[in-house]
Amino acid sequence: MPLRVLMERKTKAKIATVNALSFRTIARGAAITSLLAPDRDGQLADIVLGYDTEEEFTKDPRPLGAICGRCANRISNAQFTLDGTTYHLSANRGRDHLHGGHKGFQRAEWRGSPFKGSTTSGVVFEYRSPDGEEGYPGTLQAKVTYTLTEKNELIVDYHATTDKPTPVNLTQHSYFNLGGRGAGNVLGHRLHVNANAMTPLNAELLPTGEIASVRGTPYDFRALTPIGDRIPASGYDINYVLNRQGKGEGLIHAARVEEPTSGRTLDVHTTEPGMQLYTGDGSAFCLETQHLPDAVNHPNFPSVILRPGAEHRSRTVFTFGVSR
Question: In the prediction, which pLDDT does 16 show?
Answer without folding.
Answer: 74
